Amino acid sequence: MVELAGIIILGIMAQWFAWRFKIPAILPLILIGLLVGPIATLFTENGTKLIEPIWNGESGLFPGESLFYFVSLAISIILFEGGLTLRRGEILNVGPVIVKLITVAVAITFVGAGIAAHFILGLSWQISLLFSALIIVTGPTVISPILRNIPLKKDVSAILKWEGILIDPIGALISVLVFEFIMAGQGEAYTTTALIEFGKIVLFGFTFGFTFAHALAFAIKKKVIPHYLLNVFTLATVLGVFVLADHFAHESGLLAVVVMGIIMGNTNLPNLKELLYFKESLSVLLISILFILLAANINFEDLMLVYNWETLILFVVVVFVVRPVGVFLSSIKSPLKTNEKIFVSWVGPRGIVAAGIASLFGLRLMGQNIPNAELITPLVFTVVLGTVLLNATTARPFAKLIGVYLTDSKGILIVGSSSFSRLIAKYLIDNNRHVVIVDNNKSNIENAKKMGIDAINSNIYSEDLIDNIELSDVGYLMALTGNASVNKKAIENFAKNFGEHGTFRVISSEEMENPEENPKEGLFSHTDDYIKLVNLTRRYPKIHEIELNSKEHYNGLIEISKGNSDIIPLFIKDNEGNLEIIPSDSTSVEVAEDDKLVYLGKEFEKENSDEVLEENTLKA
Length: 620
Fold this sequence. Notes:
With 620 residues, the protein is of the alpha/beta class. It has helices at 2-20, 26-36, 66-84, 95-101, 104-121, 125-134, 140-148, 154-184, 188-221, 230-248, 252-265, 272-296, 300-305, 309-330, 338-346, 352-367, 376-402, 419-430, 442-450, 484-498, 509-513, 530-539, 551-562, 606-619; strands at 411-415, 435-439, 454-457, 474-479, 502-505, 543-547, 567-573, 579-581, 596-601.
């Protein structure tokens, strides 16, 4: 009982530590596992581990292979949760790169790492290729915390995120095929076995994942499942699909749950957010337990087997040769720049799937007295721990060094997806600005997406947005809802994270009545509140530009707009296309010759504009 409680307590403490110091949680989790496991044998009185995961006749938490059954079920939940977070819209520009990373780069890693292990460590070809198959996967549990802490272009983040989740079942599939090869022997017996296993894994994985995803989505939409049972019912379904698929084809369960997660995550489901919150919390708990258990399960003698220069050389080849070759060949003719390709090459941490399957296969092969089988688990753990340590400590400075770190956050977060918010967002996007709209109204979000705008259905009272990698380049915040308290709360919550260059909100009706108390974060003008903006968008749903020749010309047009309820100034656009948001104190804006005034509503009448120009000329 003490051991079980200790694992959970230590795991959550490690998660908090990782959050506090902005590092992947897997790093402290593995270190804790090693401390309470193999390292503990050096200082305990009878040379035993503080936590013994597998029953050894005297102590242990799990008898026989039940630890690995638990690991498999836990991984299925983690991968399903990962699949739920994948969105088709994230890969519009880089879809081909992701496809090549999970095909071409996988083949390069499999062959390259296998050759390296064979010639550097002198392992048999079978064990070498099993090792290379196991380290194909890049762990989503490791990559996500790294991406949350580094502001990157959306495309780069999307590539690493999608690769980390999609590659897990592929790596597991290849590992199973190699394992079957070792168990079946060489020649015709293996060829037949491999082809049958491959076909079964793909067939049952996709079939069960696709079928049950649509069945569960249908049940949720028709409210067949009561709200209070939704989360646990989904959990039971995921476990059932995993076990069922795995029964028909070993390791097809991983593919089934990923397919199921992706389909459900891209279906317009009610209560999807609640489902994600529950699965995310469960995944955090399971990851905390799993890494401690798997690290503690390693024996100190196994660690010493790979404590040599040959292992270090193999690690260097895998990380600094094989991975970059795979990434560069997969991104030929892609929109990625060279420095972005280098960064994707650098970030390739291995995670829970590699560690879990390695532990299972290592034990089974040792039971069959396969030569070098005892090296599989410590070798894979060395790569997992080494890549996590490398990426956790160097990803941020390396991103700055090669120039992929977004130092100038020009992205704009708009809170509220009303008609005029969408109109403004579309104009900004057409002028090469990254814009994301946030609203808790699903209908408004769908309307924004139809216009090609990145939109997130979320509640601004939640802190989830802070960890959203789609917002890593945001430096401006515009709160444009009809609720003054919501606008103020948005600025209060997110100014620090998303308002580096400015936070703005539409003024309230009360503030509009008292222009003398103009709020510093007021937007556009002190005579136009949310209601005026919505009504004007309904009458004149178009944004115009007019060229300026001086600050006086700008001031004159602003005065005209104050007396004309059909015109609301929005931005100043310079001759290079850069946009500056006009605050409610519109006179504070700097204007240069050839700048343009961007405004919403009815076009300025030519006579009025000419009058302003003539007055400025006479004054000059």
